[in-house]
Amino acid sequence: MKMLLREGEGMAGSGDSTVIVGVKLDPASRELLTWALVKVAQPGDTVIALHILDNNEIVDREGKSSLLSLVKAFDNVLAVYEGFCNLKQVGFCFVM
Fold it and tell me: For the chain, which terminus, N or C, has the lower number of CB atoms within 10 Å?
């Protein structure tokens, strides 16, 4: 399930709002995040890409932690958005 939430004083597009996008490591999430950055976020806004961990993502089948590899994977995927956010003057962060 994907989600998009925009909250804040500047909902009419004046900036200073927070846009929260629920993400996974899949093409649909990247498409939603791209759409939110291009169509929803305004200069001065902050976009938060939010991923909720489930137990299968934290521990692999052998009981070893896979959290570090997951963080690296998201970091690689989301790094492509940093330059665009800088150009658009939008704050961007990832929360897991």
Answer: N
> Could you give the number of structural domains in the chain?
1
Whether 50 maps to a domain, the answer reads no
Query: Do residues 45 and 18 lie in contact, with contact meaning Cβ atoms separated by under 8 Å?
Result: yes
Backbone phi, then psi, for 36, in 5-degree steps? -65, -40
Cα–Cα dist 74/54, whole Å: 15
Q: Are 20 and 50 in contact (CB under 8 A)?
A: yes
pLDDT band at 1 (very low <50, low <70, confident <90, very high): very low
Q: Give the C-alpha separation, 24 to 34, whole Å.
A: 13
Longest dimension (CA), the chain: 50
Average pLDDT (44-52) is 90
Residue 49 β-bridge partners? 21, 94
pLDDT tens digits, 21-41: 998 888 998 999 999 999 999
